[in-house]
Amino acid sequence: MTARLHRKDGPLRAVVYARYSTDLQREDSIEDQVEVCRRVIDRNGWSFGTVYHDRAMSGSSRFRPSYQQLLADAEQGRFDIVVCEALDRLGRKLSDIADLFDRLSFNGIKVHTVTTGQITALHIGMLGTMSQLFIADLREKTWRGQLGRARKGRIPGGRAFGYEVVAASGNEAPEGGLRRINPGEASVVLRIFEEYAGGRSPRDIAKDLNAEGVPGPEGRLWGDTTIRGQVGRGTGILNNTLYIGRLEWNRVAYVKNPSTGKRIARVNESAAREVVAVSELRIVDDTLWDRAKQRQQEVRVEKCMWPPPGSLSARLPGWVNLRHDRPAAPCPESPSQRTQGSRARWSGECQH
User: In whole angstroms, how far apart are CA 5 and each of 48, 56, 109, 160?
Assistant: First the structure.
């Protein structure tokens, strides 16, 4: 039985923290959590204060607006106890939970959960570890489920431009991932490939599509990056292998930077990728695809040849011994040798 907590000059000032993880959960989840916490506060005779809540935000990251505000207010001594439904509402990483507990304890603030009662260092070690293991297990099961879809030729992700979702029919399990070609969008895909292979730039193509009122992916305006994307990651219209009837899954892995909470994309080795033929989803023939790839390569080489021969910049010192009467050299690998004004660097075409 947990001992009742009191404050010398009055009831403890209690605040509530509530959170749910994804958009698939009910909005009422926050209100439900707050209600059960309020009952604990009333039962213990504490005063009810601020409610901090983060909607549709993962507990695996501490970079949540209300969570950060809770920490800031704790430093100001604005409350005496934090009440939440369970410890995993505050976070699912052991290091984050331990850091929170240390900071709250330093400021004389207690943590109380509906399911456990007053939280101690022992709870932090046990429950924090369990929460982190839950996240690792969920990540593994999600990856396995996506792998299973990909092996069946189903799309384990969002809807790519040029296709539409096929709903399960009859007795078929609602596994998802089925696609079919959207004729209207497919014609736009073909147009983009033909115009790009013919010498037009992604910027000019995007400009014309917007001027004609052609909706882009998810109804957004077209941008040059939507078309050219990034070759290594397989993003952008020009790099989506679905258009030649080839599903490539696990091309990129995402890891969170622990310092910022932002996801960083890392291109996987070829052996780690799953490649499945989906000929029914082909929009672009091999000849057109190869022409577009050839032009991409030519453009990348051209943009890395900077400054161009004969330009004023080529005659200035510091350009890796380039002179106007010599061919331009590839962009040097060392960042210290590259100029801030390099158009290849700013355009993202240079791979160094």
Answer: 14, 32, 11, 56
